[in-house]
């Protein structure tokens, strides 16, 4: 799901580092949010190929496809989604119901609504294995719904009765490939597959779960369009998810749907030229960018005596037809860990870097999540500052002197 | 707010009467929803003036205006909204915070979230004077929120403590101009002004309430774009409404925002030529269409011995500079009443017309709401069938014979 996340305490002063921001040595670098504008140059290079023209009298009706369960889904978008999954090989679409949402954020809300039961005596438990995406908790709790209840870490969940487990794979924040962990009788699963695309992880096989969520934001970088989609096996669940969208927003922007259809179509076409002399495919391009960033980051972090990054297993990607190196990674976020008692978020803040503390993900302050999506200038400045932090912390650890580093409280 | 409404029991077989539907004498005419496609010809006539072109690399970021409380509001849309309210004179915008939503539907949810208190021991009561828009109840109840509780008709509300009253003006379903009715100390008001535009009602003065909701759908007929906006006096309320949008959908489609900005801009420009020999302004055009429909409807209903339509008071419209006739009306829905015990919805269904029963609006079965937005062919067929129903009911009433008409249960 989204990398901006649903930080209910979003701070107006915490200006995101965007491509439009000009940075100085004193600038605060905001790597809290995962705004994927780093892919913008690729789409610029595509020129008019992805340009959308909408006439003043187009798309006026609430309705898109009155014969479809999801009656507000533009058929072109449904076709483009199907074509893309077929080209990439990351999800089974045959016989699935497609539900479009205002980002996968709205679809997550729709899924937990659809999986809950209004006639139940207790709210259904909602869990995710820590470290989990920080937005789930906010989304589950902010309206104090009596339908579902956030119960935190799936690994320690042991209540009887129905539950919903969200499986985020690759995981946000740490990029790990995941399966369900609770595995009890009355469980329902929601797979959040926002990052199951070739630039972030090897595509090992087409996934085939009951409810799978994807988002345009993280697939191509078009976060501003707010388009997500769900592939749903069960007709009644798809109907209830559609109902959620109907009651909460009477459907989803048709302009965004048409634009997503166009861009996903161009993306699918590009997949046919993979590995040929033709122009670089978007997934090749974006994977290269992610890799280069991870290499630079690993080169900095390896000098630290106390900081580390997750290790990613080597795997064969069916899409690229290649084995991925196990190191460096290509995940959308860096999940930095300190083996010493350091409050990462505060330490970074001292050095004018905003990351998100592990505490928000059900982990602890010794972890911090850093977005790998920042504009190039911000990423470079981040690496410089991280190097300086590493020099300080290495010195402190070696000398055992009074540390200027903020310890965990 | 929206005319499709949030009918949680939306029936897939209940195909809406759209411009694309070809009707036969056996066709079911669906006048349940208020899909405003009847204004399409106007926008078609405008040619390229309202055409929007979006490049593949445009609008990629989550962010639109990082210095604004509503950080996902495209500045062009804020400017267009301000310009339009100034041109029409229906709402005060100076010093107001603008919050954009996925239709005014999402903004209504945001408003009741913002006006509730997570620390309160009881949910805040939510009321609206009957007959009220049928969607409010669904929106307030579907997630079983502990923050707010639907308490129905404002006229009979007498609980102590905080409450929220939604004032819909002109009212959906009956077109009445409204003020708050509860008027107790701890009340907060949300004004749903979806229909406070010159085609539906005289614009008597610029409204100046704490929270005012508008929607692109009903202003210009572009329902598919899902764009609504709120004008909010209090900064903290605007922040909380923005927070709602952030948690539930991380903002609002930027494509739709840009399109709304363009079309609202063209609309405002057109207002400068009002009443001149220049091309017909959209509000003149749409008002003329609504009037013509009401005249035809009144001409049919006046033959009935038992059916009636609401009376609209004469008023001076500052926008057109004219007094409106008190009869016929120009409201978006016809709120048909029967003085006999007739179950309107069932009666219409027998004659292949789908309306929405008064029961859904906190009234009774002797009322039914009919959308005045249907495509021309559907509206003509509706009038023919209504004439036939009136012939039958007149006969029955006159003769006192066994009625084929379905009585209220």
What's this, in brief?
Chains A, B: Belongs to the alliinase family. The structure is a homodimer. By secondary structure, the first copy, chain A, is α/β, with parallel strands linked by helices.
Description:
- The structure is a homodimer of 409-residue chains.
- The first copy, chain A, has two domains: 29-42 and 281-399, Aspartate Aminotransferase, domain 1, CATH 3.90.1150.10; 59-271, Type I PLP-dependent aspartate aminotransferase-like (Major domain) (Aspartate Aminotransferase, domain 2), CATH 3.40.640.
- Mean pLDDT of chain A is 91; it is low at 5-15 and 397-403.
- The longest helix of chain A has 24 residues, at 376-399.
- Chain A has a seven-stranded mixed beta sheet. The first copy, chain A, has a four-stranded antiparallel beta sheet with strand order 10-13-16-15, with no helix packed on it.
- Helices cover 32% and strands 16% of the residues of chain A.
- Chain A has 409 residues and is of the alpha/beta class.
- At the A-B interface, helix 1, strand 2, helix 3, helix 4 and helix 6 of A face helix 1, strand 2, helix 3, helix 4 and helix 6 of B.
- Strand 2 of chain A pairs antiparallel with strand 2 (52-54) of chain B, so a sheet runs across the interface.
């Amino acid at each position: 799901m989204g990398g901006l996340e649903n930080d209910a305490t979003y701070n107006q002063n915490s200006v995101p580092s965007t491509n439009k921001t000009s940075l100085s040595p004193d600038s605060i670098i905001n790597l809290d949010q995962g705004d994927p504008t780093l892919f913008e140059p690729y789409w610029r290079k595509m020129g008019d190929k992805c340009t959308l023209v909408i006439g003043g009298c187009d798309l006026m009706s609430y309705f898109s496809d009155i014969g479809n369960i999801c009656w507000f889904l533009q058929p072109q978008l449904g076709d483009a989604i199907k074509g893309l999954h077929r080209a990439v090989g990351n999800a089974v679409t045959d016989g699935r119901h497609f539900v479009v949402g205002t980002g996968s954020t709205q679809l997550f809300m729709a899924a937990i609504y659809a999986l809950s039961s209004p006639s139940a005596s207790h709210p259904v438990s909602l869990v995710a294995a820590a470290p989990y995406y920080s937005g789930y908790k906010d989304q589950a709790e902010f309206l104090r719904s009596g339908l579902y209840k956030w119960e935190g870490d799936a690994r320690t969940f042991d209540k009887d009765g129905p539950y919903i487990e969200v499986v985020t794979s690759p995981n946000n924040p740490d990029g790990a490939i995941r399966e369900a962990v609770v595995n009890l009788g009355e469980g329902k699963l929601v797979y959040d597959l926002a990052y199951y695309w070739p630039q972030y992880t090897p595509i090992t096989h087409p996934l085939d779960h009951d409810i799978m969520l994807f988002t345009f934001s993280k697939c191509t970088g078009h976060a501003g369009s707010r388009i997500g989609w769900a592939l749903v096996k069960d007709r009644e669940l798809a109907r209830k998810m559609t109902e959620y969208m109907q009651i909460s927003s009477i459907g989803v922007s048709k302009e965004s749907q048409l634009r997503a259809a166009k861009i996903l179509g161009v993306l699918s076409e590009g997949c046919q030229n993979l590995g040929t002399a033709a122009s670089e495919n978007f997934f090749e391009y974006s994977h290269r960018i992610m890799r280069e960033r991870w290499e630079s980051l690993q080169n900095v972090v390896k000098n630290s005596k106390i900081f580390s990054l997750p290790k990613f297993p080597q795997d064969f990607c069916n899409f690229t037809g290649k084995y991925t190196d196990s190191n460096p990674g290509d995940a959308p976020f860096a999940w930095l860990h300190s083996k010493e008692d350091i409050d990462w978020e505060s330490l970074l803040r001292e050095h004018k870097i905003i990351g998100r503390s592990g505490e928000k993900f059900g982990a602890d302050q010794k972890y911090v999540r850093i977005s790998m999506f920042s504009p190039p200038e911000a990423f470079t400045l981040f690496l410089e500052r991280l190097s300086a932090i590493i020099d300080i912390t290495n010195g402190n650890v070696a000398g055992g002197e009074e540390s200027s580093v903020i310890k965990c409280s």
